């Protein structure tokens, strides 16, 4: 991803391995400060995952893979290191998958650093493929809407929902992106707007509640990411996604989900089977550590919502753009 | 409205006249501090309106009426005082109406303070009638949703959208209210949640983007206010209202608009004729004075959206609950 710094433009990934150390953009400081953390011990990496210096399931997976490489280089007990890393974020599927993948590679005697880099590269290559398949959906002059951050920061590089935008921009297309701010944690305002503007893609932030107004008035296309896709095509994504899909349906605005095949979970037959994480109400009642709400008032804070397959025009995957009823061809990971 | 203070419960209005002075809850300090401003000069009142110590069109109107009473008591030039007050907020219809109403009363030789109190009482009486007509819509166990603040703070007392909730609560009904926070200015989180909890009405704050999820899952009834209603029943209200109406329609959740007849403007044939105020993007990019968005990124900030009449189940007015196609009977103010 391109990043604008005081010393000019640089091109970096959200996390990478260099000079024997894991390097990681500290996402907690974005968009105001770009600070790269450097770690030479897998326990530091585990702390960074736990404390959310890195976020986004694919990026967390890659970070854990790099952490396993450090453990191997340092001669640590690999089973213990695996436990240290897996215990950081108990619900992230990619995290477990990445650690197990590294254990297998190391048991086969493969090079630790090269293996971890391969793992991260696989993710990025899938994102590039998503970008190539999705870019034709964006025309010159298109007005696109996205939600939350399904960008390079969440996937090491390129992103999922942002991949078609990056590719279309690289192809010279000019278009505009509505970025819904994505309360409560504001990943749209803080991360997606930062990524898009660094790329030179024209965009504006809107309040989440303004989405419906703009979908009716001017949006041509919506692209969001997904946290999990059920067998029938129902999918979970950041809270606020579902209502955009309903609005898009009413005004015949195409609605696309960009996600790698690994997001597809055929063990869940439908959206109702997806468990929605309920997070602390303080994410709603407080902003940047300041209480906004009256004392003593509770907040309900579901972190995700489920959008039914019937509202999805297509899933943009690394294997092509699939209709909901074509998903079963993927079989699963 | 009930207010909980360190010294126990008190019952006050948002603005009132007492001991020769205008008293006004400083809404800029809510919900964290309850401070009552006291003013003995109409220019102080004008400043308070301009600087938004008071907000909500009906409450602004009543405040201006009280300001005219002060001008009269102090022997000020009434035409100049009228200009001082009218120049504070150029778009609030109630403000002009209230000042002209007071001028007329004073020209007839009526008592200044009594006239201004009559003006404020008229507003509150309309709100009470809205409450009586709307309360039957709320059942024991109902889950109600509202947006922004159409409460006592906006209307001197009782409120419009909150009036049926206050009345139903006084009737002993138990129900629950989802309060959408209402970015960018968060009047839902800061004012509506404060009013409801002071009354002892069970409620929880949600992110605006969670509205669709809860409308599908559990909301029985939505009641919002209105800033202006066109002849055909299309209406403008705080941004975020329209998308709730679309979601409610999809899931057959009744959607009601609570507003006095004075909100009805038959000079506008339809919603497209309503001009939407575009406010400064900094309301989106900054929160409590802190920049959240990356530097250099713009925000689009329409303050209102327009909801078509076809999505409204009824208008709760002081004359009863009307269907959109019955509005023309009102004729206009």
Summarize the structure.
The structure is a homodimer of 333-residue chains. Chain A has 333 residues and is α/β, with parallel strands linked by helices.
CATH homolog superfamily of the largest domain in chain A: Translation initiation factor eif-2b, domain 2
Query: Could you describe the largest sheet of chain A, including whether it forms a barrel?
Result: 7 strands, mixed
Order of helices and strands of chain A: EEEEEHHHHHEHHEHEHEEEHEEHEEEEEE
Oligomer: homodimer
Distance between the termini of chain A: 27 Å
Radius of gyration of chain A: 19 Å
Our count of domains of chain A comes out at 2
The interface involving the most residues is between:
A-B, 55 and 56 residues
Instruction: Return the CATH architecture of the largest domain in chain A.
Output: 3-Layer(aba) Sandwich
Number of helices of chain A: 11
CATH third-level topology of the largest domain in chain A: Rossmann fold
What's the CATH first level of the largest domain in chain A?
Alpha Beta
Biggest sheet of chain A, strands in spatial order?
A: 8-7-6-9-12-18-19
Give the fraction of residues assigned to helices of chain A. Answer: 25-40%
In one word, what is the shape of chain A? globular
Uncertain spans of chain A: none
> What number is the mean pLDDT of chain A?
95
How would you portray this structure in words?
Two copies of one chain form a homodimer. The mean pLDDT of chain A is 95. Chain A folds into two domains: 2-125, translation initiation factor eif-2b, domain 1 (Four Helix Bundle (Hemerythrin (Met), subunit A), Up-down Bundle), CATH 1.20.120.420; 137-330, Rossmann fold, CATH 3.40.50.10470. In chain A, helix 2 (57-73) packs antiparallel against helix 3 (78-86), helix 2 runs antiparallel to helix 5 and helix 9 (211-217) packs parallel to helix 10 (241-250). In chain A, strands 8-7-6-9-12-18-19 form a seven-stranded mixed beta sheet, sandwiched between helices. Chain A is of the alpha/beta class. In chain A, strand 14 and strand 15 (290-291) form a beta hairpin. The longest helix of chain A is centred in the middle third of the chain and has 23 residues, at 112-134. Chain A is 36% helix and 21% strand. At the A-B interface, helix 8, strand 8, helix 9, helix 10 and strand 15 of A face helix 8, strand 8, helix 9, helix 10 and strand 15 of B.
